[in-house]
Design goal:
This protein has about 210 residues and is an all-alpha fold. The protein contains 8 helices and no strands.
Amino acid sequence: MAKIFQVSARAGMTRVVEPLARGLLRAGVTPNAVTVTGTVGVLVGALGFGARGHLVAGALIVTVFALTDLLDGTMARMSGGSTRFGAFLDSSMDRIADSAVFGAVAYWLATQGEHAGVAAALLCLAAGSVVSYVKARAEGLGMTANVGIAERTERLLIVGVGGLLTGLGVDPALQIALWLLAAVSIFTVGQRMTHVYRQARQVPTPGGNG
């Protein structure tokens, strides 16, 4: 099934990002530095603004810095490919940033007495972590799980749009976005587990006929 953030859109973003990536590499900036900077920016947007109710500023800052995922990946490719530590760092920073975003959203909703929204935010955080874990575990077992309608970029865009609209006065937008995101995240977990299950069935068991 096609991802929400279509391949054509990703390709268009890449064409915009590539000149910036080349410039940063020429200036001696490393992909790992961009990864850490992006995470710090997300933390500032989520905890410094979103958690305090400044949803428009928080959503815009988080979105801008979340797009460094494309930038550091492009830089790594241009410089000869990601290192093992670079891949580890990127994945770890993603988990930190995601926790900050959904933790901040849950905190702000709690201050507003929106208990259903808090539940949705926590469900999004848990389901998003499982989405990432299933992929990492599958790859650790020699399989792949690069499927699903809601990968990390899609998840951040959905919550970002919801936060932005709520900040602009469309009160239910954030909660609607969170429940939508929870649903598609859980569906994505199912997609990935099914994908891995099908691959596992094709692997011959020891002593079998192959």
